[in-house]
């Protein structure tokens, strides 16, 4: 049953076995030796220590180049199909850490074309969402002098010539094998992967020399980057290195926070009351009665509230372990954990929402080629 | 054997039966009634009278709209894969007549992306060729105030949002059926048709209201426009009307002038000496000996030299008929016809080459959205 799940850029179903997925995709685990190496550059981010960013491609090569003075670009993105939730923010938070630690330039891509092609949305919808999502990205404090936001339909003049060169090297058979397209797939979907490849090669175009790139993102994006990496040498670009994270879990206990279950999803614009209500309904590892839980203890392994601390809200390992221990011993009850998490999320969101307002002033500065929102 | 030919936007093989092709594509003949109607707007162009522009889609509707005051745009284009030859110029000459007769705006598209994707050429190659080809187009004297040249990679910002909307409505199965793509086709080829659709809808975008468009072009382009017309209503645009011409014959007697046989192809930059040499080698309908021809006469039906007069260089029907008659009677010999045609072509090219030089000053003014060459 471990194989009974599906992870593509557009669909995640079933219980994901991340080790099986890594083998399926052929990516490399981020092991202790790699984490030790990363520690030389700065304090290791909890998402690395905790195996949330857990797999990579050619990360060692990227660091070798960095050590030689060949500074990389960061590249990640977002498909703007709705409001930003914490699951979207998770890899961005990690990207911010990479930018701060390595002092590197960053490209953030908004694939408004993708979401138009794959969802029942207009280009107007996806453009508006790109703006709203960008505010959340900017609010995380990326360096405005070294970060550029690309919106596909706005910056297509820069992306299209690269996308064409990628397209010429990818056959329909390959796209079909990698993404599972069918006869009924629209021809925009089939071409789209070239637009996700393009920003990986843009730094080499900007710098006028082969420039390393690392893409920290959800492992569901690996199909795109398998294609990107396959075509890179033939186009004279370095293969982008990859840093893959697991999906941010849902409050309902599922593997992926998703807008398809709004009550199990914390949006960046949620009010304290909404957060309280959503966390209050979260799936936990508790027992049916207080008495039973006091006696038998809870199970943090399956608890969405614990996972939120693990993934995002408790960076202190000692405190996290204590939390798990107390749960297992029956010393704390689900209600207490929910109150504590609600408070942490609301503290985070209050500050984020203020920065999100400030972002409205900054976002234009980050627009690639100075496009107008 | 009438079916033993193939006409696609990228390949023309076998002896084309244009009546069969019209039935195969489902287009409508331009009949006497239609030519009479066109005569109301001005002198009917020889290419219409002589059945070179011989088939259409919704031309009656276009004229109805014109009569109501709903002026159409002209749209045609060129895939810049090499130097311009007379076969490319033929439909442009007709477009110029349409612009002059109906006093309408025109969009001319350079599909440099297409030629990159379908040929062994770089984007740099196809861009350079787009410029060279544009000089020939401009030299024909299109109204600089009402004519805009689009180069796909330069004006992709305007075309891409329309192309995406087209792409969302075209499945791979449709593209495969219409164009014959295979698993080995690159994914750029599969997407490309959306870029040829986009300029048909651009006038409606520019004018802010549904705007009729007519596309006079080779009938080999019909597959693209079947797709374009199929998706138009769903996108809120009028279906473009079509005016289709036969392929310009080759000097070697074949159905299509093509750069694959350079000696049978007159380029716009050819010298008088080159033209003389090429016409001198042309396939004719003559007999093996002068004596035999004087006695039996020649066959203008199969003669490339006669066809060049018919298609391009003798607008006077009486003179053309006299030419055919004298050939059949053995009154004139192939050598004489060749000398006469060489002279006509060289007179045309001398003037054209001068206007082509002047075009270097004008072409920038016609660049859509003011891109730089």
TrEMBL record, chains A, B:
It catalyses: tRNA(Trp) + L-tryptophan + ATP = L-tryptophyl-tRNA(Trp) + AMP + diphosphate + H(+). A motif ('KMSKS' region) lies at residues 256-260. The keyword Cytoplasm applies. InterPro entries: aa-tRNA-synth_Ic (IPR002305), Rossmann-like_a/b/a_fold (IPR014729), Trp-tRNA-ligase (IPR002306), Tryptophan-tRNA-ligase_arc (IPR020653). It is an enzyme of class 6 (ligase). Keywords: Aminoacyl-tRNA synthetase, ATP-binding, Cytoplasm, Ligase, Nucleotide-binding, Protein biosynthesis. Signal peptide: none annotated. It comes from the Archaea. It is found in: Cytoplasm. Its EC number is 6.1.1.2. GO terms for cellular component: cytoplasm. GO terms for molecular function: ATP binding; tryptophan-tRNA ligase activity. The keyword ATP-binding applies. One of its GO terms (biological process) is tryptophanyl-tRNA aminoacylation. Pfam families: tRNA-synt_1b. Its main location: cytoplasm. Catalyzes the attachment of tryptophan to tRNA(Trp). HAMAP family: Trp_tRNA_synth_A. Belongs to the class-I aminoacyl-tRNA synthetase family. PANTHER family: TRYPTOPHAN--TRNA LIGASE, CYTOPLASMIC (PTHR10055:SF1), TRYPTOPHANYL-TRNA SYNTHETASE (PTHR10055). This is Tryptophan--tRNA ligase. It comes from Methanomethylophilus alvi (strain Mx1201). The gene is trpS.
């Amino acid at each position: 049953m471990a194989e009974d799940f599906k992870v593509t850029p557009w669909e995640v179903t079933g219980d994901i076995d991340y080790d099986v997925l890594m083998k399926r995709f052929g990516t490399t685990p981020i092991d202790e030796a790699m984490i030790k190496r990363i520690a030389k550059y700065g304090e290791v981010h909890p998402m690395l220590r905790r195996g949330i960013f857990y797999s990579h491609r050619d990360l060692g090569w990227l660091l070798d180049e960095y050590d030689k003075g060949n500074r990389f670009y960061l590249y990640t993105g977002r498909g703007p199909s709705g409001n930003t939730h914490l699951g979207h923010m998770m890899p961005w938070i990690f990207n911010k850490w990479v930018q701060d630690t390595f002092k590197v330039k960053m490209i953030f891509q908004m694939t408004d074309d993708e979401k138009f092609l794959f969802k029942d949305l207009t280009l107007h919808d996806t453009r508006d969402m790109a703006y709203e999502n960008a505010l959340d990205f900017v609010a995380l404090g990326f360096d405005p002098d070294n970060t550029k936001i690309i919106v596909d339909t706005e910056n297509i003049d820069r992306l299209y010539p690269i996308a064409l060169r990628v397209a010429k090297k990818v056959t329909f058979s390959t796209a079909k094998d990698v993404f599972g397209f069918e006869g009924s797939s629209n021809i925009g979907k089939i071409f789209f992967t070239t637009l996700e490849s393009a920003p990986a090669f843009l730094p080499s175009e900007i710098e006028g020399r082969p420039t390393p790139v690392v893409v920290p993102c959800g492992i569901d994006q690996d199909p795109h980057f398998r294609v990107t990496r396959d075509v890179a040498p033939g186009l004279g670009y370095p293969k982008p290195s990859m840093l893959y994270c697991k999906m941010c879990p849902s409050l309902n206990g599922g593997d992926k926070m998703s807008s398809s279950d709004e009550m199990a999803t914390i949006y960046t614009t949620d009010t304290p009351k909404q957060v309280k209500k959503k966390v209050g309904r979260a799936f936990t590892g508790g027992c049916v009665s207080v008495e039973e839980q006091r006696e038998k203890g809870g199970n943090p392994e399956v608890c969405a509230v614990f996972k939120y601390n693990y993934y995002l809200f408790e960076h202190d390992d000692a405190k996290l372990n204590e939390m798990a221990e107390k749960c297992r011993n029956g010393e704390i009850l689900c209600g207490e954990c929910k109150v504590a998490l609600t408070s942490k999320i609301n503290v985070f969101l209050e500050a984020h929402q203020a920065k999100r307002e400030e972002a409205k002033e900054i976002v234009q500065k980050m627009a690639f080629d100075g496009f107008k929102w």
